[in-house]
Amino acid sequence: MSLWRFGLRSCPYTGEVPGPVVDPAAVADRLEEQIAPLHAELSRAWWNLSVDASEEHERARVERDLALSDVLARPDQFEEVERAREEATGLARRRLDVLRDALLPKQVPSELRSRLIQLEASVEARFSAHRGSIGGESADDNRIKQILRTSDDPAERREAWEASKTVGLEVADDVRELARLRNDAARTLGFRDWFALSVATSEMSEERLFETLEEADRVTAAPFAAWKHALDERLAARYRCPVADLRPWHYADPFFQEVPAEGGVDLSALFSGKDIVELATRTFDGLGLETRPILERSDLFPRDGKSQHAFCIDVDRQGDIRVLANVVPDQYWMDTVLHELGHGVFDEGFGQDLPWVLRDCHLVVTEGIAILMGRLAGEADWLESVAGVGAPEAKALDGALRAARAAELLVFTRWVLVMTNFERALYADPEGDLDACWWELVQRYQLVDPPEGRRAPDWAAKIHVAVAPVYYHTYLYGQMVASQLAAALREHCGGIVGRPAAGRFLVERVFAPGLSVRWDALLEQATGAPLSAAAFGRDIAG
Fold first, then answer.
1. 8 A C-beta contact, residue 159 and residue 193
2. SS3 of 197, please?
3. What is the pLDDT along the chain (542 residues), one digit of tens a residue?
4. Nearest of 318, 329, 326, 339 to residue 276 by alpha carbon
5. Burial bucket for residue 112 (CB in 10 Å: 0-12, 13-18, 19+)
6. In whole angstroms, what is the distance from residue 348 CA to residue 314 CA?
């Protein structure tokens, strides 16, 4: 995770900037020398707030964010970078392109930048500190998910589901305000709204993005509907109710972004009592990729006042890489720890001869690597080689696991369609009826009916909407990247699990170049073909 760019890349700014020719490399060097230490300080402050949502840590996060933002906002530096880009070629031009992407979004009024930073920190701190309530007792996300995975009591399930949404009530007004402020910033720079800015500045095209989403909708609509019909019949039998009476709390997680046991393979017994972190370490050992230093710096287990989510952060681009998680022994956290360590080994693998600004990666590619690693927790080869499942049992599970993976891709694709279309609607009209919009999209893409008369900001309970805006489409692209990389690794290395050659392939072809080349060119170089949905489609077909 990189904080200083705020997820932004190139943009169509075309203003002419007069001035003398400057040395491109020298301009990049001077700016990186200023940014690098401020980025590290902000990363540490952001980490501290995530592991302990105190007022002191919130203030420190805001102060460090403002300090970096003030440097990036200097118009003289922006103009100097623009002049230098006109003279630069090769790696120097790439450095300046990435640096310009960091400066451009900050060329907005200082009051607006300051308000955004303060409000983002406040909302994030409230997500970290918030806990739902079940039966009058505080319940964290792990407890809520446990109930939704295991309870046969519809009343208890509904209470857990509703508890998962209470944070939305707490932050919804401020999330709307964040959307307004982000739109103000985008329009200052000549963009329609924040959604348009975010996509245009991430080496992507909004038109192409929605062509991809529409294709994903067409490809998955019928198989998802058939799969969900069969799932709903099993759920109705389990809960002894008509299919028409099924509601969101009858599924296995608060947003129906995961496959319930009835629709896949229930591996919960295999992970009960297992050391999830040790299994993850063993997985990466088999690839020849060291994760112990990352884990030693990490914060892996749940407690009050700590963010309940998971992420990996490269603090200084010099080796201080950390993972935040809330591990309990189940398949979800097995997948998640492998996922986050996938980000970590990517960050560890940047070529150290790269300039600081290029020791980073595009969101689509790092998500692809993380997804590739997380998927292993549901593969027969990994279960046998790493988790210690007997060969006959693993072999017997193989077909069902492939079908479960296909179901996971269907479920997740439909969820991405909800999230991406909702965020486009949010930034198109932050004042609109977002509660109704959310449920219209959930019904359309996930085929889940809302509770009767439900009027609540359930959309605001998804943390990405608040603090990782216009990000979710990168997960869908990441799934495609993961499938294409997995196919390449099967072809060149015979697979992934226990194959050091696969680790070398990833380090040399994917990790080491960092941001020195565009993400799409990097993937084509690594796999021998441009990104396509072919391998992804084969995975969906099972």
1. no
2. helix
3. 555 444 332 333 334 445 555 799 999 999 999 999 999 999 999 999 999 999 999 999 999 999 999 999 999 999 999 999 999 999 999 999 999 888 888 999 999 999 999 999 999 999 999 999 999 999 999 999 999 999 999 999 999 999 999 999 999 999 999 999 999 999 999 999 999 999 988 888 999 999 999 999 999 999 999 999 999 999 999 999 999 999 999 999 999 999 988 888 889 889 999 999 999 999 999 999 999 999 999 999 999 999 999 999 999 999 999 999 999 999 999 999 999 999 999 999 999 899 999 999 999 999 999 999 999 999 999 999 999 999 999 999 999 999 999 999 999 999 999 999 999 999 999 999 999 999 999 999 999 999 999 999 999 999 999 999 999 999 999 999 999 999 999 999 999 999 999 999 999 999 999 999 999 999 999 999 999 989 998 999 87
4. 329
5. middle
6. 9
Nearest Cα residue to 480 out of 429, 422, 520, 509 = 520
d(CA 130, CA 170): 9
Q: In angstroms, rounded to a whole number, what is the distance separating the alpha carbons of residues 367 and 208?
A: 19
Single-letter amino acid, residue 49: L
* Residue 530 dihedral angles phi and psi, to the nearest 5°: -60, 160
SS3 state of residue 323: strand
pTM of the model: 0.90
Across 428-466, b (16+ Cβ under 10 Å) vs e yields bebeeebbebbbbbbeebbbbebeeebebbbbbbbbebb
Buried b (16+ CB within 10 A) or exposed e, 300-324: bebeeebbbbbbbbbbbbeebbbbb
Check if the beta carbon of residue 178 is closer than 8 Å to that of residue 194.
no
